[in-house]
Amino acid sequence: MMKKAFTHCNIFTLDEQGTQYENGCIIVNDGTIEYVGEYHDAFVQACDEQIDWTGKWVMPGLVNSHVHIVMNVLRGAAEDLSLHRWLNEKIWPLESKFTDEIAEVSAQAALIEMIKSGTTTFNDMYNPIGLDCTRLYETVKQAGLRGYFSYTLFTPPDGSSEADTLARARDVANYIRRDNSLVSTMIAPHSPYACSTGLLQKSAELAAELGLRLHIHVSETEHEVDLIRSQHGLTPVQYLREIGFFQAPAVFAHGVVLDEQDKEILRETNTTIAHNPVSNLKLGSGIADVAALLEEGIHVGIATDSVASNNNLDMFEELRIAALLQKGTHRNPELIPVDTILRMATHQGAKGLGLAKTGMLKPGFAADFITIHPAGKIHLTPSNHALSHLVYATNGRDVEDNVVNGQFLMKDKQLLTLDEERVSQTLNRLYAEHLQ
After folding, report:
1. CA-to-CA dists, residue 54 to 51, 226, 377, angstroms
2. Is residue 392 part of a domain?
3. Domain that holds residue 371
4. Element (H, E) at 205
5. Is 420 a domain residue?
6. Which residues are annotated as a binding site for Zn(2+)?
7. Which of 116, 159, 292, 305 is the Cys-Cys partner for 276 at CB 3.0 to 4.6 Å?
8. Which residues are annotated as a binding site?
9. What pTM does this model have?
């Protein structure tokens, strides 16, 4: 790959020291950041390509720690319902009608939305049963984002053997691992309420065997906690420990309803919570006590969940609401300052997914970054307090460039890897033909 220099920009590295450069330069070589600092003409002239980003703000790309990309076709299809009614009355019946084409185009719609709004890394859990996962993975890979695409395991509702779903999970995981692309995979049992004890145990064993992480919904609602407690006499987190689930590093989506013992288990097992504030609010699930989780040393990333419960994939909106909720619920404006929430949505989120060299602008890290140009944007004026604006004033529509692994996925607001018009038209047609 060519050596590229991105020049004359305002750089927010989001490193441990909060380093910023007003007339900065980023030099990228073979998908990795080689230099970040003040502009030096000699450094730049040695590069094969020079991109002038005068006046633009540059920051690490956003990391969406939990999302369901094939659900983009269901935006607005299930409103004003609690989680379990939402799943059982709307989402799962609609997903049973999915075709491979619906899943493929819906995923492309989500990938477009993430690219345009500043996400560079995502952690997906793939849902509909019986579709071609490897075909869908190939589609996902072509978008150019970094992330995880994982087959979701359920205990079959028809009472058939769980061996088939485990075998399928193994096959999909091995297919993706062999490909060695920017998109990797995890082992993803859906939840304690949708998987038997045996399936949860075997999922954990498979993750440990393959050296993969686990991705699962846990303690999303009081209903879920009450259900698992009635069945097993334990909270979901305690139940998972009891059955030996913590055999591999895990990402727990939600973690809304947790007691002190749950938190201690999460801390001891170094489990990551993927915090989905908008989805949790919209489904009436509650508000995760993120401030307490952070205080107790528990790792927390930020996530959107799907557009069926959000209804967008705008991580800027998500991180803003995440910060505001903690300040409001605790009546403490000092909680979750701007640098903390930005790191949760970038490097901290990436670390929780096992990507320790992603989400920060410093030498040796992945060349994944985005730009915002404040010029002419009244909501970003005056531009003196840029970090504050990135949290409390910016939205995904402000993103101008999206670079992953040193390659443009969007340049000056022009998508380069996917056809938005075709995807939009096709998705509308497929919804009308199959789901209306």
Report:
1. 9, 55, 16
2. yes
3. 4-61+360-415
4. helix 197-210
5. no
6. 66, 68, 217, 305
7. 305
8. 66, 68, 95, 190, 217, 220, 305
9. 0.97
